Amino acid sequence: MRTLPSLSAAALILLLAACGNNEPVFYQGYVEGDYVYVASSEAGRLDALAVRRGQQVGADAPLYALEATRETAARDQASAELAAASAQLEDIATGKRPPEVDVSRAQLAQAEAASRRSAAQLQRDNAQFRIGGIARSQLDDSREQAQSDAARVRELKAQLEVTRLPGRDEQRRAQAAQVEAARAALAQAEWTLAQKRLAAPAAGRVFDTMYREGEWVPAGSPVVSLLPPGNIKVRFFVPETVVGSLKAGQQASLRCDGCGDPIAVRIDFVSDQAEYTPPVIYSRENRSKLVFMVEARPAPDAAARLHPGQPVEVTLQ
User: Fold this and answer.
1) Which CATH number do you get for residue 199?
2) Using an 8 Å Cβ cutoff, are 169 and 14 in contact?
3) What are the CA-CA distances from residue 162 to residues 23, 147, 270, 290 (Å)?
């Protein structure tokens, strides 16, 4: 690294003159902005651009919208699938529907009537068999029919009890998992759809717009760049004889052409990297100085008076 050059005679004269006039020492710098580039994770055609360059927007103000036909359809499909899965879970939890229970009751009534008829027939055939009126084979047929009809009644009674029961625990858990999966799919579809309509993450000035309506915007490509007041900062440069006395949080003030009253700023960064020439400052005197960059931020309400690239003069306090 080069050794520290000595101050030129002209610089010494200016410094002595300033001391003689009791004028405060100031350091040159410029305004810079940390831009917020608003981009979508999804690609699409730019349907609407709601802002223009230089416009002031509030937080959550609409910025732009991309074509979203496919994403809207996917959201609607996911919503319908969730509704179907939820209805099926409710149906499993409540057992059979009332009309289905009525059908089972009617079938049971028919079986009971048939069982009564076959039981009565069996009694008559028993009486006839004892007096020799019928053959044993006919009595056996009557007995088997009565037993079959009685078994049918027991079967339908059991089925009717089953219709009053909810679904099995395993079946309910499986369907509940289907509902959660459908709900997650809907959340994902809604998030993807939301990526097609972007809003301002913070209040600020629209610094630039990168696309026009009707153009195709690739995924991740910024459409609007914002400059919130809190993202405006000042960079100025101090000699190595001063940098050691600076610390984060220290107050300073700056002046600039057209800014009106001095603007208070707070130092939040002091570089430990030396530079030989401050950017945008090209005088011979400054080229011979070893300087350190310092960053300071004004209050957000005063930041609106500053513009990136604007030269400033900073006075330490």
Assistant:
1) 2.40.50.100
2) no
3) 98, 23, 79, 91
Determine the structural domain holding residue 278 and report its residue range.
Answer: 9-34+229-316
Dist. CA 184–CA 203, nearest whole Å:
32
Show which of 182, 203, 227 is a domain's final residue: 227
Q: What is the DSSP letter of 262?
A: -
pLDDT (tens digit per residue) in 52-98: 999 999 999 999 999 999 999 999 999 999 999 999 888 776 656 67
Q: Number of folded domains in the chain?
A: 3
According to DSSP, the residues that pair with 316 across neighbouring strands are 252
**DSSP SS3 for 218:** coil
Question: What are φ and ψ of residue 246, in 5° steps?
Answer: -95, 150
In a domain, residue 2? The reply is no
CA–CA gap between residue 248 and residue 313 (Å, rounded) = 19
Can you state the angle between helices 169-194 and 69-94, rounded to 10 degrees? 160
Tell me which of 198 and 1 has the higher pLDDT: 198
Amino acid letter, 58? G
Are 15 and 239 in contact by the 8 Å Cβ rule? The answer is no
